[in-house]
Amino acid sequence: MDLLSAVGADEAMTAIFAEDRAVRDWLAVEAALARGLAVAGIIDDPAADRIAAACRPEVVDRDALWTESAMVGYPIFPLVRMICGALAPDDAGFVHFGATTQDIMDTALALQLRDGCTRLLELVGAVGDALAVLVRAHEGTVMAGRTHAQQAVPTTFGAKCAVFLDEFQRHRERLVTARDRIRVVSLFGAGGTSAALGRRADVVRAEVARRLDLAVTIVPWHVARDRVAELTGVCALVCATCVRLAREMVDLSRTEIGEVAEADGMYRGASSTMPQKANPISAELTIGFGLTAQASAAAMLRAMEAGHERAAGEWQIEWHALPTTLTSTAGALRMAAALVEGLRVFPDRMRTNLAADGGRIMAEAYMITLAAQLGRDRAHELLYPRGA
After folding, report:
1. Rounded (10°) angle between helices 76-85 and 101-137
2. Which of 2, 5, 48, 288 could bridge across to 38 with cysteines, CB 3.0–4.6 Å?
3. Sign of the C-alpha dihedral computed for residues 344, 347, 353 and 354 taken in this order
4. Which residues form the catalytic set?
5. How far, CA to CA in Å, does 11 sit from each of 7, 138, 331?
6. Which of 177, 135, 161 has the alpha carbon at shortest distance from 241?
7. How far is CA 162 from the centre of its chain?
8. Under the phi-then-psi rule, with left for phi > 0, alpha for psi from -120 to 50, and beta for the rest, what region is 144?
9. What is the CB-side half-sphere exposure of residue 47 using CA atoms within 13 A?
10. What is this structure's pTM?
11. pLDDT at position 46
């Protein structure tokens, strides 16, 4: 595990993309395929039962699986051989029947991404709920609004948080759409034509989808990776908001500003050499996870460049970029939720900072009042600080 994940990973999302989950999902897809073959009349129900029973984790020698995967280039070939080894020859002859490696891996990926989206929605909800509390609690907490990093006009801390809350609501809608699009079965054979299953392909595919709670598509998506890239693109947007939120709180917590601070606690954010320090660790982890997710999401655009009917290297980009994007997005959201939930707000310091420029923060209000009699341009000239 990398250091960033060791310090702040979301365990639920990490489990979705763990080796154990991947192997179990591949086995689940192979079992569902056997059931689909039975529904289509290619094999009988007892044969499907025996094949499905053999698709269990105990038949997989993990060390051998990865050793052979390194030789083959993919894990499904050795996995299928292990399933077949647990069956009589007649049954073994129908394991993986009509499918190709990418069918199994993409269908399993759809299961992971479906559940990954659900977890992201939970985390977005946690951030949104925490922001909503701040919006309600501080709708009247006046502070300096800042433009171009300088004090501009008064606003409220609740209004500032409402902007983030509204943004996360839109991210929630985007995630729901992306989840609906990505949860589709893949079972189209080597070239995407379903030639091995022929006219029975639709029946088999529909049964596999039904058993796995996935949607059916009649068009192959071996090289059409827009659904996957859409999801990672949404993740990048979510993380951009998380990073902006975190940086806002880092700036507002600066010693010179001091309007907010992260949750306190013994040694929380402690420095090994400066005893007085309490570093904004939740915000820092949010930024670290968020920028990592954005970098990985960008790689998915290259994965979309796969040619012909099957990729020759572009698909492999996903093996690293997808888990990294989703686990990092979950980490960013988890840390953002912790940041907002524990945030301490200091209204007295906000009021003190409002007076930092001697009242000039009210210049626009004076200008608009005078403009009713003098016109905006004349009022602006009267209030403009000469020699400033």
Report:
1. 110
2. 48
3. positive
4. 148, 271
5. 11, 32, 9
6. 161
7. 22
8. beta
9. 21
10. 0.96
11. 98
